[in-house]
Amino acid sequence: MKTVVTPTSTAELIEAVRSAPRVLAFGAGTKPRLSQVDDNVLGISTVGLSSLLEYEPDEYTFTALAGTPLRDLTAVLAEKRQYLPFDPPLAAAGATLGGTVAAGLSGPGRLRYGGVRDFILGIRFVDGSGRDLRLGGKVVKNAAGFDLPKFLVGSLGRLGVITELTFKVFPRPASTLTLRLPVSDPERAVTLFEALGSGRWEVEAADLPPSADAVYVRLAGPEGTLPLIARELLAHGSGDTLEPSVATTFWANLQAQAWSAPGNSLHKIALRPREAPALLQQVAAMGGQVHLSSAGCLAWVALPAGSDAGRLGLQALTLRGSGPLFSGRAAEPEIARAIKFALDPVDRFPGFA
Amino acid sequence: MPADALRRLSAILPADRLLWQPAHLAAYQSDALTAFQSPPLAVAIPETADEVIALVRACHAGRLPFVARGSGTSLSGGSLPVKGGIVIALNRLNRILRLDPAERIAVVEPGVINLAVTAAAAPHGLHYAPDPSSQSICTIGGNVAFNSGGAHCLKYGMTSNHVLGLRAVLATGEVVEFGGGRREQIGPDWCGLFTGHEGLFGIALEITLQLLPRAECFHTVLAGYRTLEQAGDAVSAIVASGLLPGAIEIMDALALEAAKAAVHADYPPHCEAVLIVELEGPREAVAADRLRLDALLAASQPVEARPARNPAERLAIWKGRKSAFSAVGRLSPDFIVQDGVVPRRRLGEALRRIGKFSREAGLRCANVFHAGDGNLHPLILYNGRNPGELGRAEALAGRILRLCVDMGGSITGEHGIGVEKRDYLPAMFSSDEIDCLRRIRAAFDPLGIANPGKMFPGGEAPALHAHGPHPLERAGVISRE
Ligand SMILES: Cc1cc2nc3c(=O)[nH]c(=O)nc-3n(C[C@H](O)[C@H](O)[C@H](O)COP(=O)(O)OP(=O)(O)OC[C@H]3O[C@@H](n4cnc5c(N)ncnc54)[C@H](O)[C@@H]3O)c2cc1C
User: What pTM, to 2 d.p., does this model score?
Assistant: First the structure.
């Protein structure tokens, strides 16, 4: 994109969508590959649409404009002791709510209650015909109409421009505790992930950071109960408990993806835990790094510039770098074309390439 | 049944699995919303996914409407047969194909009963979380079609939060695989879109479900209140406290009376409402949270608060709650269940107004509901044999739906729109929004043969053209705006 407009109201944004034959919205640009498109595409920045429109702590819901930075939202939620349990990544870097939904990104906390798709309730978006549409709802439960809010999670702005979102939130547990459980090799990490996932502890996060030899486990719950649970988890090995301030920095760094060198390409991979050992090996051979998140259901992979993520043989989304947007995915079914046409009959938005 | 349609189908299924004689069709002519009845042309009973695919392709080739059917427990007319169409009954596709305890997933056929998934997972300490009250009879296919909920949605969500993968035959005959059974996905969320399609996209053939570890510990309390208002206030206090119970349910006096009669449930005397709250989690967490919950409940001035002292008492509490719908059925020859949602803080006001509407209509209305989600379930009692009563019941249901929308809620939390609420869709969505939903539907089903006449008000608009713009559109002569 060469030309960029920055609307400051939803009406202006709708106008902008209608104004050009080819458009793509983007937020703070923390996932630059998602908005790397041809020069003839008009860029619509959502950063001028930043506002928390409604927040009802007693309903566990809020509605915000798409360009609202996550860090502003989490700060407001924290005042009421609430949170988005899926730890949306790149909040500190300025990532927006709309960008997080369009990219379909969740962080370590997705392990306990699910990811961004599990907390979205309602959406307002502009389709390819320039129509202003609200689907889903504003209450925590709603089954009226097809679930477009969920469908647009991961749609990368290619099916519509998101202008407003309603989310469910949860009360924030009173305390957290992070454990470091050493693992000698990736197979053991997988065994540990599986045990944590089916255990009684309701673990909030379980991640293996790049080049680490330990799984970091975050517990969350009522004050005073976590040391009891931790004792059990620590009983069988040489693990230890992180100091609270060390733990905070540790998770903040992971969330910021501070480990991935800016020159490398960055990819999200939808993983099965058992695929993790082979992935780690393959990425190491390519000279890259892996952060296994959410007990091995999610991997963030950094590869030296110019590498082909397709060689990993897994479904991947490129967030930074110059490779294709998607790799490792089966050919698009016929229905994908039909739906793209239903939402964008004039091909106003770029395709998934 | 027209000879050519029958010929096409009988090439796929043996005669004993293709029913067309009126006596055999009677069992299929309605779902749990018995006010609507319509016999199908025929009922096809496939036993394999390949047979389902062949049936759908035959329907597509002959423009023959079809309605997928699980156990027929839909409360909104979702599995009501459509005129001139067939029913594809999926109960015999009831195999659990794979259960992987380490990865915590189950791959099931659509006719598997909801509770059977949990039964199969239980030996591994796992369970399938969505628990509609009908869980001992309803199918996973039906749950997926309606995005069904249950008493435990507050913490763990609805069906769609647990569907990780789907194989389906679309109404076009195309066979697709969505999601791949992974917890994360790349690209748009197709499983999310398919779940809640109300049978309008095609037929789910294989569903990958996420299983959760069974909570180690429960603390279930039943508290009786003199007024519904007090029970509602207790809910607000719990929510405001920062506790996150697995379930918060309320039953009113009429529902209590019914449950007492039906399953000999025992409730505190002279109560207009009973609240059920359940904490679940690791024993350390539940031990800490129960102190706070018990204190909150004590402060809410119940007639009596009874914690379940053992698993049997917990089950008894849930049995009373989950039997409430069928129990209310005993109080009255007929009933309609509504399923609107209101913001939680307006529950008290909503119930008061529903009580007023019900008095004005001269019909009794029982309330059993998911208070934690703001999801009401008013059960409107009527006698279809009394002239005009069904009409009055429907009018009352309509007033309740509008009330929910006016309060900023929804016309359905988990039962779907079906035929019953299709005229109320415009109360929630603009004509552009409904048009968008119709286009999505037409992309999956350009001929409009999958469960036509459901969800959308009025008739179905035929698809303009689903794959690429119409030539006149491209030339700018017509447009869809
Ligand atoms: C006593 C009682 C209590 C209930 N409690 C609850 C509750 O607590 N929460 C709740 O959410 N619901 C509840 N329900 C409603 C009902 O049980 C659910 O909607 C359930 O999911 C329907 O399942 P079924 O197998 O009976 O589906 P059916 O009624 O047979 O079908 C429902 C819909 O699904 C479609 N369908 C079925 N199978 C497939 C398939 N394989 N592929 C595509 N479409 C398909 C049908 O066409 C139809 O539109 C209750 C119903 C009763 C009678």
Answer: 0.95
